[in-house]
Design a protein that fits this description.
Layout lengths: L2 H8 L5 E5 L2 E5 L5 H8 L8 E7 L1 H10 L3 E8 H9 L3 E8 L12 H5 L6 H18 L2
Helix pairs in contact: 3-4, 3-6
């Protein structure tokens, strides 16, 4: 079984699963929160494979920044696919979508809007951290 197959199998009941060899990491946090947390913790994910429920451009840029080599997305946006392709990250998906929508289902996801004009993964990390902090502050 490949790392990507193991990640896909480990995704059941979680929002994200990452695998490298026999090591498996899962999270139940929503959205891009798990990847931002792994990045903030300086978790070395270089060469890992990831399975995520939803992957748009924001998540794709975080995977690239972290050095993830392969991604499975339950739902993959067109921009997410373009981003993974442009950085040479292999991917598979269950369903292809034009856009990733917000939780209310009435607009584009705010994280996707945040990275709309960003192609540099490091810049995306900074912008997404700011946006997530802004959204959390607004919900207090």
């Amino acid at each position: 079984m490949t790392d990507l197959e193991r990640a896909k199998a480990s995704l059941a009941g979680h929002t994200i699963a990452l695998c490298k060899g026999e090591e498996v990491i899962t999270s139940d946090l929503r959205g891009i929160s798990p990847m931002l947390a792994f990045i903030k913790e300086n978790k070395d994910l270089s060469g890992w494979s990831a399975a995520d429920v939803i992957v748009g451009k924001a998540a794709a840029l975080l995977f690239v920044y972290a050095g993830v080599k392969a991604v499975y997305a339950g739902v993959l946006s067109s921009e997410g696919a373009r981003t993974l392709e442009s950085y040479g990250v292999s991917y598979e998906y269950g369903t292809r979508a034009q856009n990733i929508v917000n939780r209310a289902g009435n607009d584009v996801c705010p994280m996707e809007k945040t990275v709309l004009c960003i192609s540099d993964p490091a810049e995306a990390v900074r912008a997404l951290e700011r946006k997530l902090a802004e959204l959390r502050a607004a919900n207090r």
